From TrEMBL:
It comes from Thalassovita mediterranea. Its EC number is 2.2.1.6. InterPro entries: Acetalactate_synth_ssu, Acetolactate_synth/TF_NikR_C, Acetolactate_synth_ssu_C, ACT-like_dom_sf, ACT_dom, AHAS_ACT, AHAS_small-like_ACT. Catalyzes the conversion of 2 pyruvate molecules into acetolactate in the first common step of the biosynthetic pathway of the branched-amino acids such as leucine, isoleucine, and valine. Keywords: Amino-acid biosynthesis, Branched-chain amino acid biosynthesis, Transferase. It comes from the Bacteria. GO terms for biological process: isoleucine biosynthetic process; L-valine biosynthetic process. This is Acetolactate synthase small subunit. Residues 30-105 form the ACT domain. The keyword Transferase applies. Dimer of large and small chains. SUPFAM superfamilies: ACT-like.
């Protein structure tokens, strides 16, 4: 049986080293990618993530320059700092990609998301759902005798908090657009 030899004072290979290595901590990053608006580009970008096992928490895509045929892909992902750097480098090598910005490291960011939230309920639950919607500034965009559909725009954590409060009141379904983000300032 082979013996494990560890230098005295070394903690890098010790089973007792329980302190987290901060370079291994996962971080949430919002990436803005400017690409040619042509068939297959989104599939190539997403293929990079899936082929390497990177997770996408949010994805939005829209044309931002009709004359220049450019689209903006906004991706929210998580990973260690090394993985995020690897993702950015690999995205930059894809031919139809013009620009890659890590909004998370470039400074303050404005992030917004749109959600449609369907809640069923009657009586007190219905009244409570409407009261909470007013507090969260959610708009009623559809109403029946037994349900509401609320429209809400805000930061992802605000939408998650509202959905969590609606759960015991009869949350049926939620549809979210994904994060749209821009850097603040000039």
């Amino acid at each position: 049986m082979a013996a494990l030899h560890i230098k005295k004072g070394s903690t890098s290979h010790s089973a007792y080293n329980l302190r987290p290595n901060f370079s291994d901590m996962k971080e949430r990053h919002t990436l803005a990618i400017l690409v040619d608006n042509e068939p297959g580009v989104l599939a190539r970008v997403i293929g990079l993530f899936s082929a390497r096992g990177y997770n996408i928490e949010s994805l939005t895509v829209a044309e931002v320059d009709h004359a220049g045929h450019l689209s903006r892909i906004t991706i929210v992902t998580t990973g260690t700092p090394q993985v995020i750097e690897q993702i950015k480098a690999q995205l930059g090598r894809i031919v139809p990609v013009h620009d890659v910005h890590d909004l998370t490291v470039e400074g303050a960011v404005v992030e917004r998301e749109l959600a449609l939230i369907k809640v069923e309920g009657e009586g007190e639950k219905r009244i409570e759902a409407l009261r909470l919607a007013e507090i969260f500034r959610a708009n009623v965009v559809d109403s029946t005798l037994t349900s509401f559909v609320f429209e809400m725009t805000g930061a992802p954590d605000k939408i998650e908090a509202f959905a969590e409060l609606m759960q015991p009141l009869g949350l049926v379904e939620i549809a979210r657009t994904g994060v749209a983000a821009l850097s603040r300032g000039a």
